[in-house]
Amino acid sequence: MTIRSTVAQALVRFLAVQFTERDGERRRLIGATWGIFGHGNVAGLGQALLEHADDMPYHQGRNEQAMVHAAVGYARQSNRLATHAVTTSIGPGATNLVTGAALATINHLPVLLLPGDVFATRPADPVLQQLEVPYAADVSVNDCLRPVSRFFDRINRPEQLIPSALAAMRVLTDPVETGAVTLALPQDVQAEAYDWPEEFFAERVWTVRRPAADPAELAAAAREIRTAGRPLVIAGGGVHHSRAETVLAEFAAATRIPVASTQAGKGSLRWDHPQDVGGVGHTGTATADELARTADLVIGVGTRYTDFTTASGTLFENPDVRFLNLNIAPYDGHKLAGLPLVADARGALAELTKALAGHRTADSYVTEYTEDKERWEQRVDACYEADEPDVRPTQSQVLGALDALVDETDVLVNAAGSLPGDLHRLWRARSRDQYHLEYGYSCMGYEIPAAIGVKLAAPERNVWALVGDGTYLMMPTEIVTAVQEGIAVKVLLVQNHGYASIGGLSESVGGERFGTAYRFPSDDGTFTGAPLPVDLAANAASLGMRVLRAKTVRDLRAALAEARAADTPTCVYVETETADTVSGPPPAQAWWDVPVAATATRSAAVKARELYERHVSTRRRHL
Ligand SMILES: Cc1ncc(C[n+]2csc(CCOP(=O)(O)OP(=O)(O)O)c2C)c(N)n1
Ligand SMILES: [Mg+2]
């Protein structure tokens, strides 16, 4: 039996019946499709989505990049068992996907991209928005998506959809390979009819596998842990992807090995678990970073070891330090010349706990990190507290006000600016998925659309997008989508008139904050004049959001509580006071390599270079 339909109709029909399964849990793989229509998808996929409105939910986006962020937010909240598809027109609609695709791929989060493409039959080239490449007729702008996709194909003939759609599902559901998957769809092919074998549309279940550890690798790993005096676990995003949090908590409690976390891994243990020592690396806690400096065995679990984690190769100072890397991806398992343990984190951690029965770290080690952690928590309390409630809050006091309000069901979404560092150092994660930091790509603009995706995956949760003013300006667009669909996300908008983060970084690398404040030009041609008369609260309100303006700490507490109780999209707008060294968060506990000008006439850069060279000289290559 065959079924006659267009390529676009067949694709939508196929996507609606794909499922994932893991640990007995079955999820629909493609929960919905986002789309912005133009030529290249309006007649093909647009028409197909209309025909399939009953079995393929549709969300109307405002910006293609933002649609990918929403899909990624949904995928992460769904533990990678489900995601969304995103369809675009050709040309600019399609290339707007590139940033979102890179973000998805870097963070190992599945998302299906369906950009329209130029005519396969080429009857009247160039069509509107077509890139003409004189030496390569098969290149279109969609080829930009190749390096940022884990699978890419262009469907030039209808029957080609069958193997390609199956390959796309394989990659989306593969815990090692997953990321952005792109099926570029020439607009003429989308509308073309074909006789599809009926079996193509049968329900299909994709097992998200949990590969077990190799016995030899497991035995070697257990031996390594038994002989270590100062072991430290670094929990990365893989702990969450594998849903290994409970097993990790048991492993840590049994062995008393402290657990530090990367941005993606934070929340792996609740903050008050005795072995949780908080964030590690450049934005880490003093407790975790001191343990990292002195560790003789670093046990990476599901981490990619980015430069923020390793303090650009300077953090692990113990001359005898060794690495043991539990990772489902061999690529990451072999990093830092470590002993690999290539396996699913949850299964392998359970096996390790068994193999290490009776083994625990020394009492003196436990006392050391427990006391250190208590000291750190006092520092967090000090910068969360606001003795004077009738003044403008600092950013840490904003976090303190939120901390006092939320419970374990709230989700915080953030990606860029000074908030990620403050959150990594300070935030007390109360549940495994409360802390949703996109720091693989640290993409300004992720927050609001991703919060929408999270809320779609977990409608019962309070979902907060934490955004700086610079970030807000980059991508407020999806507020309109939240308003349109009544998706009650909360936006906490922190106004500090520009890039506090990059301003501080610029100052530390001799850049003198050049081009990082939102100010009028001054006489010397730099933008250091008066602040701009920009009203972002009015802007958010103009897009249809309810906006609560908070001037003081007292206002802020009330506004946050009101927003939390609201069942419509609500924004809390607060202008922050620049923190001094007493009221601000603790400074960076470890370095981050941002190269400084080797020659300069201005003294700030000359001084910064001297310091830079001292830091560079401490970098190690682990072999
Ligand atoms: C899309 C994108 N462009 C540029 C950057 C580099 N960048 C990182 S943080 C930042 C400034 C963020 O400003 P804001 O949101 O106001 O946060 P603040 O630093 O003031 O806390 C910039 C430009 C980025 N991460 N993402
Ligand atoms: Mg700012």
UniProtKB/TrEMBL annotation:
Annotated Thiamine pyrophosphate enzyme TPP-binding domain residues: 416-573
CDD domains: TPP_PYR_POX_like
Domain Thiamine pyrophosphate enzyme central: 218-352
Positions of the Thiamine pyrophosphate enzyme N-terminal TPP-binding domain: 46-121
One annotated GO molecular function: hydrolase activity, acting on acid carbon-carbon bonds, in ketonic substances
Protein name as annotated: 3D-(3,5/4)-trihydroxycyclohexane-1,2-dione acylhydrolase (Decyclizing)
GO biological process, one term: isoleucine biosynthetic process
Highest taxon above the source species: Bacteria
InterPro entries: DHS-like_NAD/FAD-binding_dom, Myo_inos_IolD, THDP-binding, Thiamin_PyroP_enz_cen_dom, Thiamin_PyroP_enz_TPP-bd_dom, TPP_enz, TPP_enzyme_TPP-bd
Gene3D superfamilies for the chain: 3.40.50.970, TPP-binding domain (3.40.50.1220)
